[in-house]
Amino acid sequence: MARKDLLDLASLEREEIDLLLDQAVPFKELFTRSVKKVPALKGKSVLMLFYEPSTRTHSSFEVAAKRMSADVTNFDVAHSSVVKGESIRETVETLQAMRTDYIVVRHGSSGLPGMIANQTKASVINAGDGAHAHPTQGLLDAFTLKEVFPEPAGKKVLIVGDILHSRVARSTTKVLRALGVEVAHLGPGSLVPKTGADGVTRFTDYDEAMKWKPDVVYLLRVQMERQDVQFFPSLREYHKVYGVTCERLKRLEDEGIYLMHPGPVNRGVELCDEALDYEKSLINTQVENGIAVRMAVLYWLKPVTG
Ligand code: CP
User: Which atom from ligand 1 is nearest to the alpha carbon of 106?
Assistant: First the structure.
């Protein structure tokens, strides 16, 4: 089924998830060639509309679009009429008049990409909206997991940290469970919802969670900017109780457990410096895979711009 937009993963069928993950494989193979560009989106235009900061998502969408020969425009929110009070509706109408084919949008408000999608013929891709969803992060995480576990059903992924405010936790949990992966959430009681997604095990104690025998420990970034009240005493305390300290890294190493993180990493908070050099860390692979998965998404969506 052809889709115009990618707003979340909840609305995708299992076949669509499989298709996207399969299509990302040849796009990743392209990176090893001397010419890394294909003409798939020649003549199409991609607009990057980021109201929140981003390094990985923004740059990987830009690289993905350029490798598919699309024209990329970066909408500079800080120097646009948005600062003069222009509404999102006016911005989108202006962009619509420019006949953009794809709009990649990140915004602090949950649901805003969906609102834009209803107003435009362009394909809208949610690059992260509030605490709601980050679908391409979920897909790249699933793709990365499948590279190390080609048959991921039955594998166990422990997601650690601020589940409450995390769009990454929401999207990644959804896609992994769709693939039959067992998912558990670990964090301070204040940051792990008591009524989480169905079938997700909940832990508040690190050692208890490790007895669950995860194959992957997936650390979330501590998002101080999304916390309107303090949910734990200090970052130092968080590192001690939930972070991958050097001691815990040794245990991951001994048990052959993989380590993932969506970035950006807060060193000394979610993990110690040494963890970045850990041989089973998939953090850099996640970044590389982000380009391939986003190429697959751009290739799959069908704008109605003609
Ligand atoms: N993982 C992720 O969304 O990172 P950025 O905020 O750098 O895009």
Answer: 8
User: CA nearest 240: which of 276, 216, 269?
Assistant: 269
Per-residue exposure over 101-120, b if at least 16 CB sit within 10 Å of its own CB, e if not = bbbbbbbeeeebbbbbbeeb
Q: Which amino acid is at 78?
A: A
Separation between Cα atoms, residue 52 and residue 171, nearest integer Å: 18
Q: Rounded to whole angstroms, how far apart are CA atoms 12 and 254? A: 37
Residue owning the nearest CA to atom 6 of ligand 1? 54
Task: Write down the pLDDT at residue 241.
Answer: 95
CA 7-63-15 angle, to 5 degrees, is 40
Supply the mean pLDDT for the chain: 93
How does DSSP classify residue 272?
-
Strand partners, 74: 48
156 bridge partner residues: 182
* Residue 211 CA to ligand 1 centre (angstroms): 30
Helices 56-67 and 283-300: angle between axes, nearest 10 degrees: 50
Spatial separation of the C-alpha atoms in residues 241 and 16, rounded to whole Å: 39
- Collapse the DSSP code of 108 into the 3-class scheme (helix H, G, I; strand E, B; otherwise coil) and give the result: coil
Asked if residue 152 has a cis previous peptide bond (ω within 30° of 0), the answer is no
Alpha-carbon distance of 185 to 201, in angstroms, equals 6
Distance 288 CA to ligand 1 centre (A): 13
The structure's pTM equals 0.94
Q: What is the pLDDT of residue 93?
A: 85
Instruction: Look at residues 272, 25, 255 and name the one whose alpha carbon lies nearest to residue 144.
Output: 25
Say if residues 159 and 185 touch (Cβ distance below 8 Å).
yes
In one letter, which amino acid is 289?
N
